[in-house]
Specification:
The chain contains seven helices and two strands. The chain is mainly α. Keywords: DNA integration, DNA recombination, DNA-binding.
Length: 159
């Protein structure tokens, strides 16, 4: 098996935005095969690998790893293995999402607040609501409280 074009990346580490790889993928035509020596030279994570493979597939090209025989989209077996890998990656993302959501719910149940801190204290918010109920304008309240009109509108919407 011979390669017509050889691309070599000098960027190392965990960088996923690699110029040579982008140019190499952009040069793929329908029917081409992107060949790598080892998967770890192409992708830094399962997600990164699946993203690269999606780009290759969009160009109607194939993929083959010389040292990882199972990673070969030119064969039905290779496509099956990469599909299973994609399914496992999706399953892992769902597990992480579920665990993160459960952790967030437990934390909120303990009374921990998420997001930005309020610009007005609880007593100031009550004062804003009282002024709105008495008919004061949003603009006037915002000016005396030193906050935006949007902040006042969120605290005490116009009824």
């Amino acid at each position: 098996m011979g390669c017509q074009k050889v691309c070599s990346e000098t960027a190392g580490g965990a960088k996923t935005d690699r110029r040579e790889l982008r140019l190499c993928i952009a040069s793929l035509a329908a029917g081409d095969v992107l060949v790598v020596v080892r998967l770890d030279r192409l992708a830094r994570s399962t997600r990164d690998l699946l993203n690269v493979l999606a780009e290759v597939t969009e160009r109607h090209a194939a993929f083959r790893s010389l040292s990882d025989a199972w990673a070969d989209t030119t064969t039905p077996h290779g496509r099956l293995m990469l599909t299973v890998l994609g399914g496992l990656a999706e399953f892992q993302r769902e597990l992480i999402k579920t665990r993160t959501g459960e952790g967030r719910a437990r934390t909120q149940a303990r009374g921990v607040k998420f997001g930005r801190k309020s610009v007005l204290a609880v007593d100031q918010r009550a004062y804003v609501a009282k002024l709105r109920a008495e008919g004061e304008s949003v603009r006037h309240i915002a000016r005396i409280m030193g906050v935006s009109k949007a902040t006042i509108s969120r605290i005490a919407p116009v009824s």
